[in-house]
Every structure is written in C-alpha cells, then in structure tokens.
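Supplementary Note 3. Input sequence used for the single-chain structure prediction.
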Amino acid sequence: METRKLYVAAYDVRDEKRLRRALRVMKGYATGGQKSVFECFLTEGERNRLLAAMNQTLDLDVDSLLLVELDPRMEVLTFGIAVPPRDPPFFYAG
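The predicted structure, written as discrete structure tokens, is reproduced below.
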C-alpha cells in the first residue's frame, strides 16, 4: 500500500474559465481547503497525476501553482474555526 503524504496546494489563475477547470481538478484530490488553497493527502502517483492535470489546465505564462509537501514530524497549528487536516481511513473516488 502506498503511503499518502500531506501537501498544501495553492494556485493563482488569471482567467475565469481556467480558474473553474483548476478548481475542478483540485477538488478531485483535496480533502480540505478553501478558495485557492487546498490540503491534499496524495500518493506519489496521485501527486504526479495532479501535476499533469494542472499543467494541462494552467497557462504557465501567467498562472501559478505551488505544491508543498508538509513535514509529517511537524505539528499542524490551526486558528479560529479551522479543522486540522487528517488522513481519513479511506477516500471516495467517484
């Protein structure tokens, strides 16, 4: 079984049509987040597929994507009504 790692993904998309497509792609991989920042528990294969899909969606001359793997040894801090990210026992793909 592949190990899932926690990533934070953020993007800035300049065109409304590409923005909607980027949101649709990200929601397919995200377990949480808001607006243009998402929490994603990804295997290596899922990470590669996400990057490939976003590469096809974004205009790399004007849009941007940041995907950061978080160090699992570090404590996740949340403030306000934020819920700490957690790796659920299963993921629904449908």
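The first strand starts at residue 5 and ends at 12. The mean pLDDT is 88.
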